[in-house]
Amino acid sequence: MxxxxxxxxxxxxxxxxxxxxxxxxREMDDCQTxxxxxxxxxxxxxxxxxxxxxxxxxxxxxxxxxxxxxxxxGAAGQLLDRILAAVDITREEVYIANVVKCRxxxxxxxxxxxxxxxxxxxxxxxxxxxxxxxxxLGATAFKYLIGGTTGITVVRGKWLTTKSGIAVMPTxxxxxxxxxxxxxxxxxxxxxxxxxxxNDVIDPTPKGGGLRRKLQGPAS
Length: 220
Ligand code: URA
Known about the structure:
By secondary structure, the chain is an alpha/beta fold.
């Protein structure tokens, strides 16, 4: 990894080597590791804040994403924007990526071989961004990031923790909400939990008075 990082021209600060997202993006520019590369108009790398504490991971680009080269910009993306807005989180402050970076034909679920070929890029993005909280949008993201055979309906809404201490919230994919409006309420509830955890990460001062009130000074 280190040799590869040096080959890519990664920064070397105090002996620590790290890749920027631009390095990773450049490296995968012509990726044809799986067959999806042949059919793409644009590779959808991901977008957002390189230092985001919250990362959202979906399945793969659809037609609109393929056309524009940006994640979650179609109907499901617009719903995701509304969900984020409802919990006071902006797209700019998070990072959004997918399990696969090229559109599966007809928006089918990526095959295990396609997901396996693309996941190393997502893991590099995770290494660079090092989020504190991850939201897994849908069954495909859950299957490839966490594993196991438990269905998304069972695991959604329950926090998981990775070995490296990242808090992970699985929830339904926004496209699934468009098909099943009855799932909107549970997703809203899941995102309220995400908002609370995220707020604790970005502002860890004790809640309910105490230090926070002292820092802000007396209420006027
Ligand atoms: N669905 C996804 O999983 N990802 C996108 O980027 C768009 C729709």
